[in-house]
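During the reporting period the student researcher (J.K.) took over the structure-prediction task from the postdoctoral fellow and processed the backlog of single-chain submissions. One of the processed entries is reproduced below for the supervisory committee.
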Amino acid sequence: MTFTKQKIVLLISAVVGAISAFLPWATFPGGSISGTYEGGDGVYTLIAFAVAAVLCLFVDKFNAAKIIAIICGAIGVAVIVINYIDFPPGLSVGFGAILTVLAGVALIVVPFVLKD
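J.K. obtained the following structure tokens:
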């Protein structure tokens, strides 16, 4: 199994995205809510980023895995966008949500920007 620069960046992005599911997605005066709070939508992003990470680690023929990683990144970004369309007043975007979007965008963009 060889690790190219592209594969390493995708793996790091997937791990950051998975960890961000447990970080605050919304903050309010006196507290915050993580993406996985009470089985929230962070579970979907956690699964999507975990799938991307596993593909980066264990798949040698990486072309099909790149497509799946792009889809996983799109799922992560879509979950955040959908959650914040009807964002209640008084809440602020949390650090975990920002990391989720950045990791998702990285999974989408890196296969096109970095070549093997």
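The committee noted the following: The beta strands are 24-28, 31-34, 92-93.
J.K. will present the remaining backlog at the next meeting.
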